[in-house]
Every structure is written in structure tokens, then in C-alpha cells.
Specification:
298 residues; 41% helix; elongated; 3-stranded antiparallel sheet; alpha+beta; 9 strands; 19% strand
Length: 298
């Protein structure tokens, strides 16, 4: 029995895996609270430039755990050197992205705040009817990310609301925080136009068997959308220029009418519920202004 227990105990101990201790490099990062910026994978220099976000201090950390504190100017030169020698890592989003993050973090403007906690305090004084909008840019690294990335925050205080509206954008654009938010707002607006085309002209209905036929059909859909958009921008009065193409189609184009023929004129009797008479007359006058002036020959 004793030999049986000893054999079982030996088998259990052999099945246990040894606990992996963190390397000296990881201990240095944890001790100094550093975030990896870029790794120099050159054969002679395998080191990493890191940064402490709170103190805005840069370090060069060796694989053995040794580190060296460097200045901001040296960090930029170090990054540029890696960018010039690298063939792909820093070409698109490395050099320009990180230098933009550093510029936003070290500037004295409001978007350079490292966090948005000061922006979450309600503005002092009588609330304004127009929203109070603040922007912030800071550095953040999630657990699943291989490096820190630039995050732009937009904080809006609206009259009558208890809490602010906060939105975050992870980006690598090289522009101030306010312009980054404006760019992505325009991008979202473009997606709304695409959705409008799907609902108004149904340009996703490509049911032909031949690819060329579907291509021609899509081009006709796009032409119809452009003509409708041109009609909306050039003809509609300012009061109804916000109409979507679906509203324009249902209220102005696909409407029922009664045709009454007289000896000298033809009358179209339409329901005034869809489009009032004055509005319809203004639209017709706008269409008439699009005609080219006729020049007399000779």
C-alpha cells in the first residue's frame, strides 16, 4: 500500500506544470508603469521605446530589464530612425500616428488633456441653449492591443440633461481632435446617403444572372439617384430641401392626379394634402429656371 501511494504521489507531482515567473523586461514595465511605443527589431539592437503616460516620460528598455530615461527630442529622433529603417511597420500608422499623439498630449490646448474627468463636471453658470462641446485626446491601450493608440473623446453638455453625452473614437488621423470628430461625422453622413439610395431607388436589387447586366443596372440606379439629388438641391425650396429621396418620390412624383381636358387647356387636379399649391408652383418655377436661354439664330 505504501508503494502504491508513493507511486501515485510521484505521478501527481510530475503532472504539475511549473509556475512561469515574469521576465525582467515585464517586471520593468510593470514597475515603471510603461506602455510600449515601438520595438527596434534590428539584429544589433533589440530594445523597446516605452512611455509613462502620466509623467509623459520616455524610456529605452532592454530585453534584460535595464532601462534608460530619454528626453522627448531623443524619443522623436529614435522613432524617426526606426521609421526610416523599417520597411512597413511605421509607414502607415507608426511614425505619423505617434508623433501626432505626442503633439496632442504635450500641447497646452483643451484637446490635449490626458483624460476626460475634468470635462465631466457641469459648466458653472446659467446653462446655454446651445450645447457646450469639449474635445479631448489621450493615449489608451486595451489588454488585447499590442500598443497604445490615440483616442479622441467628445463631451457634450445639453440644456435640460443631467448627464453629458460622451463619445470615443479610436483613430490614427493626423489632425486635431475637433477635426477628427468632424471627419468621422462626415463619414457617418455618407453612410446615410448610401442607406438613402438603398431605400429610395433600391439599387441593391441586382437580380440579373450576368455580371455585366447587373453592372449596367447599378449604373442606372446611380444615375436615378444623382438626378433626384440634383432635383432636391437645385429646385426644392429651402423649407423642404431636407426631404429624403423617398419623401420626394412619394409626395412629388408618385402621386395620383385627375386630368381634366378643356378646349384651350389641360388641368391636373391633385390632392393638396401631399404638396400645397404654393409649394408645387415654386418647384415648377425652379425647374423652369433650369432651362437654357434660347438664342435667336442670325
Amino acid at each position: 500500500m505504501k508503494s502504491q501511494k508513493s507511486v501515485n504521489s510521484k505521478s501527481k507531482t510530475s503532472a504539475l506544470t511549473p509556475v512561469e515567473r515574469p521576465s525582467a523586461y515585464d517586471q520593468t514595465l510593470k514597475k515603471l508603469r510603461l506602455v510600449e511605443v515601438v520595438k527596434n527589431m534590428d539584429g544589433h539592437h533589440q530594445e523597446t521605446m516605452c512611455m509613462n503616460v502620466k509623467s509623459e516620460q520616455f524610456y529605452i528598455v532592454q530585453p534584460c530589464g535595464e532601462f534608460e530615461k530619454i528626453t522627448f527630442q531623443r524619443s522623436v529622433a529614435y522613432y524617426r530612425d526606426i521609421h526610416e529603417r523599417s520597411t512597413g511597420w511605421g509607414a502607415g500608422e507608426g511614425m505619423v500616428e505617434w508623433l501626432t499623439i505626442i503633439e496632442c498630449m504635450l500641447s497646452d490646448s483643451k484637446p490635449a488633456r490626458l483624460d476626460i474627468e475634468p470635462l465631466l463636471t457641469r459648466p458653472v453658470g446659467r446653462p446655454s441653449n446651445t450645447p457646450v462641446v469639449w474635445y479631448a485626446g489621450f493615449l489608451y491601450q486595451a489588454k488585447s492591443w499590442d500598443r497604445a493608440r490615440r483616442v479622441v473623446a467628445k463631451v457634450e453638455w445639453h440644456n435640460g440633461e443631467l448627464f453629458p453625452r460622451v463619445g470615443f473614437i479610436v483613430t490614427n488621423l493626423t489632425r486635431p481632435a475637433k477635426r477628427v470628430v468632424r471627419f468621422y461625422n462626415q463619414r457617418g453622413t455618407a453612410e446615410q446617403w448610401i442607406k438613402e439610395g438603398k431605400n429610395a431607388v433600391k439599387w441593391t436589387r441586382l437580380s440579373c444572372h450576368d455580371f455585366v447586366d447587373n453592372q449596367v443596372r447599378l449604373q442606372l440606379f446611380v444615375l436615378a439617384y444623382n438626378l433626384g439629388n440634383f432635383l432636391r438641391q437645385a429646385v426644392l425650396p429651402r423649407a423642404v430641401r431636407h426631404w429624403t429621396l423617398t419623401t420626394l418620390r412619394e409626395k412629388l412624383i408618385k402621386i395620383g392626379a385627375k386630368v381634366v381636358r378643356h378646349s384651350r387647356k389641360i388641368v391636373f387636379q391633385m390632392a393638396e394634402v401631399a404638396v400645397p399649391r404654393e409649394l408645387f408652383r415654386a418647384i415648377l418655377e425652379g425647374i423652369n429656371r433650369l432651362r437654357l436661354p434660347v438664342t435667336s439664330s442670325g
